[in-house]
Amino acid sequence: MNVNSPIPSSSTNLFESNRVIGLSGEALTKSEPNIVSREGPTTATAAGAATQTEGAVSRAFRGLVAALYLGIPPIIHDERAHNSLRTWCWVQSNNQTAHAPAREEVLQRVLMNALTCMPTDDIHDGMTLPLGIKLAACVKDFGEVGLGKLALFAAATAVDPEVLSHAFRWIGRLEDRESLHGRLRLLIRVLDAPSATVRDGAALGLVELGSPLAARALEEAASNEANESLREDLKQAANYLSRRS
């Protein structure tokens, strides 16, 4: 045994030799056993093929162990293994790869992008199509979770109330049957928003949605509404939806 043999300088050399790395880092040479056949040429051929296959796998495995021990980055791949065997492959993940943003962060960003896609001065009736398009995509992608997050925006003061009012009108007029009940629950919930402007947008959204199930909620909101003008609007909305039942 030659303990002074140099350690191969590359992962390719590791596969070309039968050297393995000892616990103290020395290179050890291991001889391959010779298989002698007494069964004639056919058996000898099969035994030789089996030995070659085992040698390919053992070389791949020793190369993998040695490369791991030496810290060789980042890919070890033995393409000379027998075609009928699964090739050894180890890929080291890049520690510097940034973690994918959490779904909550993505949703927050998408909603803020939708609610700020237009200057506040450009928010007028019939002029908010960009807002509607982005909200429709958000509802499609995030479903009930996105609607719930939008409800939290209604209770905060980070977004202009006029923008939120138009956003909830769009929530009511979206053509998306899968989110119908979720949008209905959202708009009813927003009838309790701190801003009268936002509450008005929720009521108009319910009228756009057209569900008679919202009539009762609008009546209750009207009975608790301190703003006289909005109270009358809530009553009219409730009467309109009641007639549709």
State the assembly state of the protein chains.
Answer: single chain
Order of strands, main sheet, comes to 1-2
Judged by helices, strands and strand pairing, the structural class is: mainly alpha
User: Low-confidence runs (pLDDT<50, min 5 residues)?
Assistant: 1-25, 30-47, 64-98
Per DSSP, what share of the residues sits in E-state strands of 2 or more residues? Answer: under 5%
Count of separate DSSP helical elements: 9
Task: Label the overall shape.
Answer: globular
Q: How big is the Rg? A: 35 Å
Terminal CA distance: 94 Å
Please outline the helices and strands.
Elements: H1 11-16, E1 19-21, E2 27-29, H2 41-70, E3 75-77, E4 89-91, H3 103-115, H4 129-155, H5 161-173, H6 180-190, H7 196-209, H8 215-224, H9 228-243
Antiparallel strand pairs: 1-2, 3-4
What distinguishing features does this structure have?
245 residues, mainly alpha, two-stranded antiparallel ribbon, 9 helices, 4 strands, disordered N terminus
